[in-house]
Amino acid sequence: MLKLDLVDLVGLAETPVRAVVIRGTTEVEVLDAGIDKLSITWKLSSTAKKQANFTTIKVNLCYAPVSQVDRPWRRTENELFKDKTCPHKIITRAYNKSSQSFKYTLDRDILTGTYFVHTLQENSVDAKDYEVAFGQSTNEAKTTNLFSVQAISGRHKSLDIASVCFSVFSVLALLVFFVNGKRKAKLEQSK
Fold first, then answer.
1. What InterPro entries does the annotation carry (predicted)?
2. In terms of domains, do 98 and 169 share one?
């Protein structure tokens, strides 16, 4: 299990907010998709300002730069609506000043790659969400506290058993149709 603790968020654009940075300790370097879990804990730092404006927190799984090389569909953009770095949603929760945690089992459809965890604090104004602060489990250069995920290979015992069963069924069906065809041909000849 990988444990990540959110401690301090950095403000976005002109909103100077200090709220939550994720700091992580890794016990396991490579996690298996569909099996391993992330334990994520976050808490607003005591020096945070404008915290009353926070309404929700979003936690996402993001590709590290090493997993973005030669993959333009995973590129990082400064404008959040164009950013393709964090396609895997972990959780969205209502904002709470107290310490919160969540255990997340890695989805089975997560691709092999190197990842980090990213949070967004949102402020809701007139039913529109505005990102006002963020945090991540890595440094600014995205080189530390990264973890790797090994995707499911796609081949399991149950799949092998099913393919053998269908192969046997198809051979038996072919024999039945062949025998029925021969029997009908003999009946037609005898008439």
1. Transptr_NO3_Nar2 (IPR016605)
2. no
The answer to whether residues 101 and 162 belong to one domain is no
∠ CA(96), CA(97), CA(100), 5° rounding?
65
Q: State whether 137 and 186 are in the same domain.
A: no
**168-181: b or e for each residue (b if 16 or more CB lie within 10 Å)?**
eeeeeeeeeeeeee
Give yes or no: residues 7 and 97 share one domain: yes
Full residue range of the structural domain in which residue 113 is found: 2-150
- Cα–Cα distance for residue pair 171/167, rounded to 1 Å: 6
By C-alpha distance, which of 124, 131, 120, 127 is closest to 62?
120
